Amino acid sequence: MSSHHTETKEQDYLIESQGYDDHFHEHHHGDKFQMNFLTTYIFSQDHKVIARQFLITGIFWAFIGALMSLVFRIQLGFPDADLIWLKPFLGKWIVVNEAGIGKLEPEFYYALVTMHGTIIVFFVLTAGLSGTFSNLLIPLQIGARDMASPFLNMLSYWFFFLSGAVMFYSLFLSTGPFSGGWVAYPPLSALPQASNGSGSGMTLWLVSLTLFVVSVLLGGINYITTVLNLRTKGMTMWRMPLTIWAFLVTAILALLSFPVLASGFFLLIFDRSLGTSFYLSDIFVNGQILDRIGGSPILFQHLFWFLGHPEVYIIILPAMGLVSEVMAVHARKPIFGYRAMIYSMMAIGFLSFIVWAHHMFMAGVNPFLSNFFVIFTLIIAVPSAVKVFNWIGTLYGGNIRLNTQMLFCIGFVSMFISGGLTGIFLGNSAIDIQQHDTYFVVAHFHIVMGVAAFFGMFAGIYNWFPKMFGRFMNDTLGKIHFWITMIGAYAVFGPMHYLGMAGVPRRYYRFDLFDAFSGFDAMNKFITIAAIITFLAQLVFIVNFFYSMYKGKRVTTQNPWQSNSLEWTTPIDAGHGNWPGKIPTVHRWPYDYGKDEREFVQQHIPLREGEQHSSH
Amino acid sequence: MAGHLSYEEGKKVVVKGLILLGIVTIAEVLVALIGKGYIIPGFHMPVWLMYFFMISMSLYKAYFIVYEFMHMKYEMPGMVKSVLVPTVLLIWALIAFFTEGKTWKEWRAHTKDVAVNISNIPASKHAEHKEMAPVKHVEEAIHGEAAEAIDSTKLNHTEEHKVEVEKH
Amino acid sequence: MADHAAHTHDSHDHAGLWDGAKEPFKASYGKLMMWYFLLSDAFTFAGFLIAYGTLRFSSPSWPVPDFVFSSLPGDIHHKPLIFVTIMTFVLIASSVTMVRAVQEGHRYNKKGVVFWMFLTILGGLAFLGCQAWEWTTLIGKEHMTIHNNPFGSHIENGVYLEGDGHDIKAGDSFVAGSSYMVHKHAGEWAPLKYKTESGDIKEQQLGPKAFGALFFFITGFHGFHVFSGVVFLLIIMINAWSGIYAKRANKYEMVEKIGLYWHFVDLVWVFVFLVFYLL
User: Fold this and answer.
1) Are the beta carbons of B89 and A353 separated by less than 8 Å?
2) Which of C18, C23, C25 would you mutate first to test chain B, the one with the most B CBs within 10 A?
3) Least CB-CB distance to C103: which of B2, B26, B86?
């Protein structure tokens, strides 16, 4: 205890003697922004509080999204089961027949699939992942008091909250939420009469996601400006942790792609509400031809996927950044290929804007044009492989601490490889003729951007929980969580590759009635049981999270992981402004682990006499 | 920043901008009108030449507004790049989207041809070739290479499907 | 501990703007945020204009702008593109007055800032007024709406069999590619009959629907930007008048930021003007 005490004192002395004085505390006596309960915990402008708000909202949505997947997985695995026990929760969406057997309403099955996708992609893996960690780590790791505009940052969260509230409300409509797939292709999304969910459900879906775009843009503009303008003295761009680089590239992607989604949405709103025909042509409803000509549904697909593909990287890049950082800290080794990591992230970011039509090979895209999209898509394998080799290179010869966050990092790399390889299959338009719209696709993207991104998020949560709440999460429960999730995820999505190869299509309500697919009943049952077990493991995480928040082991040192980056130079319960006095000055890159016989050297420690900068 | 220009110079730029943008706009409109024979009867310009003039003059106007009025000329090179380089992404978007638009037009025209061909088939033949007739005519009606590629895959699908159905 | 004091040298090793604790672009965070917002907004407009181009490419024919936009106030017709040229001038002029307001801000000339901002607001309002007149004429007199577009072009040569009481008389001949406007009589479309070269009797067809919808949608979205710009300008002009920007001693940066937005609106108009009125 006493050694920790001297360590802390030494650090404070270093910061005070060498730090950078921005005269923050002369202007912010008593912190006028955090006067009462409302401005401290609800409408807070402190990035650390906003990060926690994003995280807890994200966990709430992840829970809802996962429950939905269980319901439709039970339907697929046990299509003949009596679901009357779900009646208290789902009400009229469980239809009871004369024999007293409850069945899931097929329309609601589609609504569940749609909502599961929308919620996990946007609310959990975009807002919950990038929102949480960009907010928490950007100011702390670059040595800033807060975001460039704390007020817009607060608005960013509340637009997200509002967006979530609208979506949540849509779950309780009498016609149900939107049910045409999370990609919202017209005509199902453009004609209110097309299906149950295409009416009010779709209207609320659009309102919700438009608010979400506003939230993302407010956040993104803030993150970029903060990283550029608010770095502390000595924090050059090439001394930033890889997390910050990842958040920067992510924010740029979001800034450029979400507006195009907004354009697509506005045109869709006109088609729905004012009777224009941007996305509609030659449409029959109940044998009647509608007076809607001249548009094309594929136009929406293009606009959607111009966002949609960068969105995939908006999800995975923050996870990559978190994994790189956590891995270096717990392998006690400098990250392998720091610059290669950054250049590959930039390459991935650029390529993500020119490959969007590979989601539409079979939708009727000009096949000649597809050739180019195939080539661009396959090039992404190069920077992705660079990253994988670098992670493995970081682990190689490391002094690895196999704690929960490190396990999740290794799990991430495993998932990213497995999911990435199937991506090479799907990126070929010729192979896509066979594989499109099958469970092969489902398996691919769930592993590579669903599970992998979740693993990155878990690694981040276990690692920075002490910074967020001043306590540790339980490592034993964490390891139980990891192993069940790791095995469970492969058990769920591994067999789906086989189903997809056999041609089993996605988005079907049941398979047992088809001669071609009924042979896979046992496999579907297996997947469902694996999914339930994996879900139960997430409950272990949630219990661990909330228990540790109040009862976990207290953090007693400023730098519990003996990490180099700046967030661990702040007090354990840092207030608004992060550092009580001056901001530390940075003298080195964040990966000086095992340098000159020293286990770790924090970024704010000056070079010794004759010491050279680590070459990177 | 205007700090790079004195106040008097700045005022001159303003006047210059007003005149320049005015002249370019008038020139654009003149190209549109002359090119289509409104001003000199009987004189027309090739469409590509008109488009070339109009697009390059608009790009010049955009350049002037961004560089002079929005002071981009006096900002740090890094900042200029950070704002302008991302717009390069739109070039591939333009190419891809417009190619698509053109493709839809061509395919729609082909679909109409196919429809006409099908309606020309005598009713007796309709009954005979319930499955295959439209496919055959698709093949005949389509001349574009790309379209042929896609439709030949469709053809294969249909044939495979047929074989499967027969097996069952 | 012993070595911390002697080694402050390395922060001087990389003398440069990217060392941190500096603004690498020598621009405040507020200005950067405005620029990046404008960049994202540019992508929104790009999305719309690319959608416009795509639908236009997918359409067999497209109305000719100098035929569509040829009316002037005072019931003047057949003056192609004159009115929209005036609109463009109004917007350019308001952009120029905005530059003047920013320049006066740099000199801390409060009266100058307010005066030039006031002129800018007048320019913005004048532009909106022009747009209102244009829309009223198109919707009210020429019956172009987001659902219907009376402007079409012929795809073959022919001779009219009847007149419309305006410009076309029975017996007038036309060539492929020439424009026409279908009139409405007593609330009903009155397409004219004509005889093609091959002897078929046909009727005028309404033009591609997407033209009207895209026109109102995109110019409307731009007009909304102008409108919100006018509101922001008004607020900032009042603030400037009250003296709060002078107190901040940052060269009226707020005026500069709203100036960037206002020029951006002008910039978008350059492209809207290009694709709707010129090409």
Assistant:
1) yes
2) C25
3) B2
Q: What angle do CA A412, A416, A419 make, to 5 degrees?
A: 135
Q: Does B86 touch chain A (CB under 8 A)?
A: yes
Tell me whether B85 touches chain A (CB under 8 Å): no
- The reply to whether residue B62 touches residue C95, judged by beta carbons under 8 angstroms, is no
What's the confidence (pLDDT) of residue B135?
40
Examine residue C177 and state whether it is found in any structural domain, yes or no.
yes
A530-539, C47-56, C68-77: lowest mean pLDDT where?
C68-77
Q: What pLDDT does residue B115 have?
A: 65
C66: nearest CB among B32, B86, B93: B32
Q: What is the per-residue pLDDT for C9?
A: 41
Query: To 10 degrees, the CA torsion angle through A38, A42, A46, A51?
Result: 160
Helix (H) or strand (E) segment spanning residue C106:
helix C82-106
Q: Please give the domain boundaries of chain A with CATH numbers for all domains.
A: 1-18+558-606 (no CATH), 320-552 (1.20.210.10)
C128 and C216 housed in the same domain: yes
Q: H/E element holding A21?
A: none
H or E stretch at A127: none
Place of tokens 């593109």: C81
- The string of pLDDT tens digits covering residues A58-107 is 999 999 999 999 999 999 999 999 999 999 999 999 999 888 899 999 99
Question: How far, in Å, CA of A102 to CA of A586, rounded?
Answer: 64
Which residues in chain A show pLDDT less than 50? Answer: 1-2, 30
Mutation target among A263, A302, A365, A366 for the C interface, most CBs of C within 10 A: A263
Q: Which domain holds residue C52?
A: 29-146+209-278
- Supply the pLDDT for residue C199: 82
Position C225, amino acid: H
Does residue B156 sit at the A interface (CB-CB below 8 Å)?
no
Distance, in angstroms, between B53 CA and closest chain C CA? 10
Q: What is the pLDDT of residue B120?
A: 62
* Closest Cα in chain C to A152: C33
Q: Do C84 and C133 have their domain in common?
A: yes
Residue given tokens 């008593």 in the structure block: A30
User: Amino acid identity of B90?
Assistant: L
Range of the domain at B32: 2-75
Bridge-based pairing state of the strands C158-160 and C173-174: antiparallel
Element holding C112 (H helix, E strand)? helix C110-136
Distance between CA atoms of residues A470 and C98, nearest Å: 52
Six-digit token pair at C74?
């005072």
Asked if the structure places residue C117 within a domain, the reply is yes
Taking CA atoms, what residue in B is nearest to C89?
A: B22
pLDDT tier at B122 (50, 70, 90 boundaries)? low
DSSP lists the bridge partners of residue A438 as: A505
pTM of the prediction? 0.90
Interface of A with C in 94-153 (CB under 8 A): 142-143, 148-149, 152
CA nearest neighbour of A432 among A522, A376, A357: A357
The whole-angstrom distance between B166's CA and the closest CA on chain A is 15
